[in-house]
Amino acid sequence: MDIAGYLASIFIGIALGLIGGGGSILTVPVLVYLFSIDTVLATAYSLFIVGTTSVVGSFSYFKKGLVNIKTAIVFGIPSIISVFLTRAYIVPAIPQEIFSIENFTVTKSILLMLLFAVLMIFASYSMIKKDKKQDEETPQKQQFNYPLIFTQGIFIGVITGLIGAGGGFLIIPALVNLLKLPMKTAVGTSLVIISINSLTGFLFSLSHTSVQWDFLLSIVFIAIIGILIGSYLSTKIKGEKLKPAFGWFVLIMGIYIIIKETLLK
Question: N or C: which end of the chain has fewer CB within 10 A?
């Protein structure tokens, strides 16, 4: 299972490098099901893995000038605050046993995995659907609807803090639709926001998390190798053609998690 886990870690990186995101959605299931790590600890580990790989992934966007710093700050501040509150107060406050129905007890771990499965299903939809072509040559004037950005930032922060996922599939549409950013700039800016959110979330988790650094860094190293492979393959293969197929895979995984955590318990 460990070998399968390490192979899956390469796949996570390849997906990130090849299709510009989405691979991180598999991090928690890989840690929980292949490495047999406790769900709450897996969400903390995932924050570090997602954050570090997103930093690496954002370098090429920085070089091309495809990161909007002002947007990252405006969107990032409410996100970071809500990540902190979620990791420091909400996650520890969730009881180990939520409720019981006959012989089935919904535990903290099951609840987090079910939330993660729902997120995977939403993420798969955004990958499977055909994107409207963005006109990169005629960018629209950027707009800052602060209440909407603030609300969206809080929501993203709570999601990131709860289940250790970056939420890029939620951030990118918000940047494109609310702030009128071109798609490529939205992807680059999203990676920066994910990096900040995830790494700060991991730091907030350290006070009540015992970290196996050798294991965690080995996963990150393997995922980064995957990103480099994916980035190389992206020059040979169009990521957009693979994105729907990956979306279907994520959808199947999301449904599998729901079945495994409910009917197969």
Answer: N
Closest C-alpha to 122, from 149, 159, 88, 147:
159
Cβ–Cβ < 8 Å for 108, 155: no
Output the CA torsion 131→50→58→195 (10° steps).
110
Longest dimension (CA), the chain: 60
- At residue 188, the pLDDT reads 86
pLDDT tens-digit series, residues 137-155? 455 666 667 788 888 889 8
User: What is residue 141's predicted lDDT score, i.e. its pLDDT?
Assistant: 66
pLDDT at 185 over 90: no
pLDDT score recorded for residue 135: 46
Reported residue count of the chain is 265
DSSP string, the chain: -HHHHHHHHHHHHHHHHHHSS-GGGGHHHIIIIIS---HHHHHHHHHHHHHHHHHHHHHHHHHTT---HHHHHHHHHHHHHHHHHIIIIIHHHS-SEEEEETTEEEEHHHHHHHHHHHHHHHHHHHHHSPPPPP-SSSPPPP---HHHHHHHHHHHHHHHHHH----HHHHHHHHHHHH---HHHHHHHHHHHHHHHHHHHHHHHGGG----HHHHHHHHHHHHHHHHHHHHHTTTS-HHHHHHHHHHHHHHHHHHHHHHHTTT-
